[in-house]
Amino acid sequence: MNEILGMFSYDFMVRAMIAGVLLAICAALVGAPLVLRRNSMIGDGLSHVGFGAFAIATVLGLAPVEFALPIVLLASFVILRLGRNSKINGDAAIALMSVSCLAIGVFVMSVVKGVGTDIDSYLFGSILAVSWEQVVMSGALVAVVVILYVLTYHKIFAITFDEQFAKSIGVKTDLYNMIFAGLCSVVVVLGMRLVGALLISGLIVFPTLTAMQIVKKFRSVVLLSVVLSVVAFVVGMVLSYLYATPTGATVIIVNLGVFGVCKLLGGVVHNPY
Question: With 0-12 CB in 10 A as exposed, 13-18 as middle and 19+ as buried, what is 193?
Fold first, then answer.
């Protein structure tokens, strides 16, 4: 216990914990609609887009997050548009966009010397290197995500379960799809800086899948996934500190363990909520 309390005597651990908890909350919020709409891989696809954007920003000497956010946002809109093309389904649109941007990132890494180390931090995350300025920026973006999510909750619920019906009763589905795509983009860009492009989709998907093993109603899934996401992140951070393991990978492994436990409990306990 003393070791656990001692970790908070380090300023970088406090920054990492605050930024990580904020990310965990947002990732769980957007994860529920994504999983239920069977668009779980969009987070992975957008992270590859972000990787390409981060690579270009590093080469040009620009601020990576500020440069990548509008690009990832645009990519999310393009994926939505391509997904409606009868010749290109949703999965193919994600694959097309993600592989292309990943290739651009790798190309930039190979052609321009001296950026490999910086890019590695975006592949695997560098949460312990987060500054207070980045924490404040993350907090501001997270506040925007949470406020928009709360304000559009009922519309997101409608387009998650029956988009055609929602459209027939007057819901502006295109608008709310774009808003939700924007929320996903913010979460992905923030998550890449903290846990890396290769792991951010796990932080989005795992809490929702875990919550669905225990509860059934949409609101219950959203709320429980937020709780599980935060708990798994905090436990992962503590274990990473105690055993000197990679933070992002440890957090995802903890999420996997929590999923396994809840899967077993879900087979025994039948919860109507």
Answer: buried
